Amino acid sequence: MTEDIYDIAIVGAGAVGISAALAFARDGFKTVLVGGLDARRDGRTVALLNGSVRFLEALDVWPAISAEAAPLETMRIIDDTGSLFRPPPVAFTSREIGLDAFGWNIENATLVEKLTAAAKDYDCLTLLAQQATGFEVDEAAASITLVTGETLKAHLVVAADGRNSKLREIAGIEVKTWSYPQSAVTAILAHERDHRETSTEFHTRHGPFTLVPLPGRRSSLVWVTSSEDAQRLAALDDTALARAIERQAQSLLGAMRIDGPRGLVPMSGLSVSRFQSPRMALVGEAAHVFPPIGAQGLNLGFRDVASLRDAVVDAHDNGHEPGVDETLRQYQRGRDLDVRLRSAAVDGLNRTLLSGMIPADFLRGAGLLAISNIGPLRRVVMKEGVLPHVGAPRLMQGVAA
Questions:
Q1: Which residue ranges does the record assign to the FAD-binding domain (predicted)?
Q2: Is 134 exposed, middle or buried (0-12, 13-18, 19+ CB in 10 A)?
Q3: Residue 259: CB partners within 8 Å, gap ≥ 6?
Q4: Which CATH number applies to 5-177+278-396: 3.40.50.300, 3.40.50.1220, 3.50.50.60, 3.90.550.10?
Q5: How confident is the model at residue 91 (pLDDT cuts 50, 70, 90)?
Q6: Is the pLDDT score of 1 beyond 50?
């Protein structure tokens, strides 16, 4: 392995890592994906917003994914905080901004399976189901040490190895972490009534309670609540939990039953001081972690990959190999503002729900009323939510080349 120098080495075989491998292999770069593939089902889904759909279309994997996903044509928000400034329910429809759907909801494990199947079709993509234990850099390339003791070299290493990233630690990139007094209960549900392709989010005093459509009369649940209450809910049997969910959902979808795996996820956040170091770029949860609110997490990770791909292609067009400093500086510029604004927005919404302070309730209620009633503002917010237009990577603009 030491004699073989790859253009790109990706460490981490989750959805973000595999999509990075596909993006670079699609462009003809000699690529290796390092990591064990994990498709465990834990009741978690992802709403792939319009920008991510365009990205996956460009990678030629969308037809296989869409067959297992449900469209999100309407997004409904209901204030269930009991606030004095509680606004009326508001609904946003994708047709208002010229889209068939804001996005598509699919189980995480199914998404990973479909991406993995596509990765096996590229001759220039090598899959190594091993763990990386070391990382070194010299002027010509980076070296990755595998758990077997073997090493491989690459001009650029992409760290997609999650929130506890080993590569980020070795590179000495500083991180800031924080936690919330909350956990998320996740589950797959079957229900009596049609969801009508509508995602419903109840804002409660302990966090958002969100039901997102799946194919058929099924939905996924993300119930963010206090850590103590989440532990209590997680301890219930399927029948009792389904009744609790139905009550919290105000019987909106009728009788419910648990129809898949369940999960319990403590709420936490992570940010990094920088998104790159010599011959390394951070993507996905190696670069940012925040609560599962607003469907931003994995979509942000896909934007990381598409943005890094743009920087690498630009370097190649100028006669440079992928790991040059200018490539990494361009990537840093492209991600810094986007990630920090999204992280701040999600953190701010979550904290206003928890605060219970009258000024915070007033601002949140007034903001929702303004978005609901002011047409141009409403459309701008919807468009920015599903596909940021300022600095959007090329593969998310429908540009396949």
A1: 7-311
A2: middle
A3: 188, 189, 190, 218
A4: 3.50.50.60
A5: confident
A6: no
